[in-house]
Fold this sequence. Notes:
378 residues; mainly alpha
Amino acid sequence: MPRWLPRAMVLALALIAAFQLGSWAFHQVTGLLINILIAFFLALAIEPAVSWMAAHGMRRGLATFLVFLGLTVAAAGFVTLLGSMLAGQIIKMVEGFPDYLDSVINWVNTTFHTELRRVDVQEGLLHSDWLRKYAQNSAAGVLDVSAQVLGGLFQLLTVALFSFYFAADGPRLRRALCSVLPPARQAEVLRAWEIAVDKTGGYLYSRGLMALVSGIAHYILLEALGVPYAPVLGVWVGLVSQFIPTIGTYLAGALPMLIAFTVNPWYAVWVLVFVVIYQQFENYMLQPKLTSKTVDIHPAVAFGSVIAGTALLGAVGALIAIPAVATLQAFLGAYVKRYTVTDDPRVHGRPRRDPGRPGAFARVRLLWDRRPESQESS
């Protein structure tokens, strides 16, 4: 046996073991890496506000704390208002359930000539196997739901902590990163960081402004129709439609339509029509003007980036896909050399033709002019 063979075998086994260990470690910390990625983009989004406060003499840590405090108060207020609205609707549905059940029983008795009674229906539901199994499964799933809630709170605290450090120690982090790079690379890194801050912050602020406009517009409609909880529903439509990509518009419009249906079924139709019309107004008039200087990317590119982000990182990828693609597009645009486009009809979407050959309309007109001459000759 050659002398190098045992060493090669040991080296191969060591490399395989190192690869397996690295793969296992990477899968174990995948959740932490995703949380750090979310925290980094959140820090980029709030850095313009923090830098503005720091430029006016406020300590960077205090400025970051005030920004986080404002976001926390706004989120808590939104959740409280939404929870009170849902609780009120649930109480209203529970209180009106007997009347609704009586109307359904009367319709069944009239239509199918039966003699059902509400007492018999209630007794059958209370003593049914389906209800007993559902109660058992619900009791068994309480611990799972509690564990998921605690896990979500821990992830939220992790993201908040890392994003606070990224925003408060942003200059120190940039200095630490540039200290291990040559001067030429340092300028490129700082430029990429600046573009990421501008695009991510611009995306957040433009979406916030569109959410404000959308919330006010839907609030006016719901208030005019007399739909309850109009302010909360307006805030819901504004936030969900702007900050949940692709399906946010449909999720945002479903809840106001449901609440409006409890008042009058025709009101739900009016809400649906208004949501569709406003979405077209936002897509073709409002959004291009607000995002032309922040995240000006093609709608097809934005849609594709959301799909790719969802496939890679799930809901997190869908949220950060658009600012990430806008940052990459702006960074590459700064280094891609562009040339003057030739004056060719094909550039403008028109076919190229021979200059000596007349066009289709010219040939038809020429034939029409020759028609009387041919009739007279015949």
